[in-house]
User: What shape does this take?
Amino acid sequence: MSWQTILIWLWVAFGVYWLASALRAKKSATHEADALRVFRLLVLALTFTLLLSNAAHTGWLGRRFMPENEPVRWAGLGVTVTGLALCIWARLHLGAYWSDKVVLKVDHRLIRTGPYARLRHPIYSGVLLAIAGTALVVGEWRCIVALVLLGVNYIVKATREERMLSSQFAEEYTSYRRQAGFLVPRF
Assistant: This one.
């Protein structure tokens, strides 16, 4: 089985879990503009096309940023799995409060357990870590572009979430910001 096939199966399994677990989410108390949601889905589609599609293996995007190296590929696979595991752990702690949109749920509460004790956005951190691991396995510039593209998207989205949570939870969120890092853990 090729490295690319392994990565595709990992990401597909993660995606299936992600979609299935979305069925347990609470109803939203607030709403987000549909245009923002569509834009983020397009960014996500472009990210994974760059990351996993041979169609993106063209021109400078298909050039290697590092030589082929089996130990680096194994390490990259480990980083990918670690990132996906962080996402799943965070998702389990969010439970019914998870949403793919920037919204508050009915009776929303601030989650500060599990990975949320040290990270305010562990799902984004986990996905970015998994993409960085995938970039190590693939080793081509297209993966770095995918990482930067989704990283910028997540920073913008997380900043919007921060504003919403700050307005909802005021002092509790201010305290939480001092305790937990944005995308990198605070100890």
